[in-house]
Fold this sequence. Notes:
CBS-domain, two-stranded antiparallel ribbon, 5 helices
Amino acid sequence: MRTVKEIMTTDCITATQHDNIYELAVMMKNNDIGFVPIVEGRKLLGVVTDRDLVVRGYAQKHSGSTSVTEVLTTDIETIAPSTSVDEAARIMARNQIRRLPVVENGELLGVVAIGDLAIREIFADNAGEALSHISEQENQPSAVH
């Protein structure tokens, strides 16, 4: 049984709660990423996604100098490094998420992404199923108000 520790990305781009949303947007652009864990030292405080920047940041007319704490998601799903790849795929599918921070004793060790499951051809069926569930959720027509 493979664990997420074997496939997770450990050289994560991170930011702190002292950064602003413009700095995060530039960080995402420069590193071609859409997800940044926010840490204090190595302690995971939450995450900011590119969608968070748009929906809770710029679309709410926050300026670029607004603190990341205004768009920070703190209620996040995390997993332990000993979690099986199979279970990680199930968690991603169930929660319709593409990335899971890998945490031990509150400290960020890495991130496992849906692409990590597919690219490494580990449990490809589970990765495909997880992505299918996530994509179905995103493609559902939303109510027009």
